[in-house]
Amino acid sequence: MEMIAVTNQQGEVIRQDLLIQAESLHRSLRPSIPNPYLEAMRAVFNSGAEMSVAMEGDQLCGLVVYRITTNTMVGKKIYSEDLVADPKAPVKGVGHLMMDYLKEVGKQRGCVSLELESGTQRDQAHRFYFKEGFVIKAFGFKQSLID
Fold it and tell me: By CB count within 10 A, which of 71, 86, 98, 121 is most buried?
């Protein structure tokens, strides 16, 4: 199994075939991604995000959308917006491979931490994150600006 970049560091799509292949799995995590998918994802990439996928041969087993940011709280960090493994993947360890990939990208780019948010209902994901060494550092709050 290997990680393959779908975008480059500038957010340009370099593997449109894999982006197209990723849509179904990505929508299993984020069903509200607007249509058309490619256009919606290009807007995300244009705002600084990148995407990579976990592949076993020609089968997509997982995907991660992430960005490198700098803030006043922690400094430079790699932030995972979306991380999803296909539960039907023919191999085990997809989530761990993606985490190792994010850690390596973060280290290569001078980040001091890897961070993510996870919906409160995602108990299985939380167990995985704890097993991977994550700690809860804060509560995330949201307020809609749409009436």
Answer: 98
